[in-house]
């Protein structure tokens, strides 16, 4: 983690190991704080790719699943990047700042994604870099808007997926009503935010609970090339535009949409034993084969976990399990949106 925020976490009593883990008692205290207090989370599990240049818009339009032309100043969108077979290599949260597009992506896959995108620049006037000038944080809770108001006048009235900017930072309102902060490293705003006293520090693993409950899964190294966008409900969070032109995997994505109901979808699920992202899932309805995969997970109580499971929809009646012996059961919960396909 960036040393500045690593030190801040330690001063706040949050001590993470090299894998970003901490004692379970501390983790659960932070989960409880996330539920009712104002929290701040340094998100070193994400980085920003900066895409800039005269042809940046046209280049991204030809690579990503969403319509990049719809991102006006002050707006943001989710998007995905796929192989020619339509399997997702990455998912992004994208906004514009100055003359550049910023693509927030899972840190573990960022170098490979930047390299792959650069391969297709060819003669286009585009520059793609992993931007180490910025660091991202999450803030949520009852006093978040009030706390941010002195730094971003629009904070209290900022609509979801809208962005407020100032010289040293950008503030984005997330679908779950939390905020994403992109702060310039070493800038005055970063210093000001770090001095806030009325916030509880939480780890990236705890902050992930917001996205899980919102039904937003991030592509990571464990889930690369496992899902077409609709399997992970990407079109339902506005990450796919079916009316735009071609991009890698577009034909597969469009065919999956228009041939009828998706066999696999992503569901919010609860379970009682620790599981990891990428864990294969099973059902007696389809024995001797995997019927899906866990895309996200967070422990919420001593023996209770929440996760996002991509599975064949028909298998819930017979049961979904994390083992072939069908001993570790997953329980389906409600997502904040309908999983019925969006008509275009």
Automatic annotation (TrEMBL):
InterPro entries: GcvT/YgfZ_C (IPR029043), GCVT_N (IPR006222), YgfZ/GCV_T_CS (IPR017703), YgfZ/GcvT (IPR045179). It comes from the Bacteria. One of its GO terms (biological process) is iron-sulfur cluster assembly. Residues 26-162 form the GCVT N-terminal domain. NCBIfam families: ygfZ_signature. This is Folate-binding protein.
């Amino acid at each position: 983690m960036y040393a500045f925020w690593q030190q801040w976490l330690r001063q706040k009593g949050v001590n993470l190991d090299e894998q970003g883990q901490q004692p379970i008692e501390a983790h659960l205290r932070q989960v409880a704080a996330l539920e009712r207090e104002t929290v701040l989370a340094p998100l070193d599990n994400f980085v920003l790719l900066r895409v800039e240049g005269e042809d940046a818009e046209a280049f991204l339009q030809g690579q990503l699943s969403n319509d990049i032309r719809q991102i006006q100043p002050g707006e943001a969108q989710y998007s995905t990047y796929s192989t020619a077979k339509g399997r997702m290599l990455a998912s992004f949260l994208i906004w514009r700042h100055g003359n550049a597009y910023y693509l927030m992506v899972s840190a573990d896959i960022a170098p490979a994604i930047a390299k792959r995108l650069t391969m297709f620049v060819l003669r286009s006037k585009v520059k793609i870099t992993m931007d180490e000038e910025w660091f991202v944080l999450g803030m949520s809770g009852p006093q978040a808007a009030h706390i941010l108001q002195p730094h971003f006048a629009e904070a209290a009235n900022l609509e979801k997926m809208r962005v407020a900017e100032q010289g040293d930072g950008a503030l984005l309102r997330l679908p779950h009503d939390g905020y994403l902060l992109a702060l310039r490293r070493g800038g005055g705003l970063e210093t000001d935010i770090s001095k806030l006293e009325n916030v509880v520090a939480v780890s990236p693993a705890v902050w992930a609970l917001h996205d899980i409950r919102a039904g937003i899964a991030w592509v990571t190294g464990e889930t690369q090339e496992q899902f077409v966008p609709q399997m992970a409900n990407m079109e339902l969070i506005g990450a796919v535009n079916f009316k735009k032109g071609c991009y890698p995997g577009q034909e597969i994505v469009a065919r999956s949409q228009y041939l009828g109901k998706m066999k696999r979808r992503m569901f919010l699920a609860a379970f009682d034993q620790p599981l990891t992202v990428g864990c294969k899932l099973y059902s007696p309805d389809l024995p001797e084969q995997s019927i899906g995969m866990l895309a996200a997970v967070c422990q919420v109580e001593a023996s209770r976990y929440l996760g996002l499971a991509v599975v064949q929809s028909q298998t819930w009646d017979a049961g979904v399990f994390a083992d072939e012996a069908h001993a570790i059961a997953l329980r389906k919960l409600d997502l904040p949106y309908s999983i019925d396909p969006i008509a275009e």
